[in-house]
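Let's inspect a concrete specimen:
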Amino acid sequence: MRFRPNRNGINSFMKNPATGAEVRRVAERIAQSADSSGGEYRTDSALGSRRWRAAVIGNYKKQNDAEGTRRALLRGLDGAD
């Protein structure tokens, strides 16, 4: 038997407002966890043409460099579960 994903169902789920709320919630938890290390982080989320997406944006000046911000964001991912 061959698996055939229900693409219409998947696409509608990826654009669902409840999915968007969950995407934003996870991004905000990542930002809060990363922020605890002394940086300034904010989130941005939007419904794109195919799905909800979100980003956590860090302040490079507080961490002194991109690598410090990267480490803080990775710690934030660990704390976001």
Q: What stands out?
A: Residues 17-35 form the longest helix (19 residues).
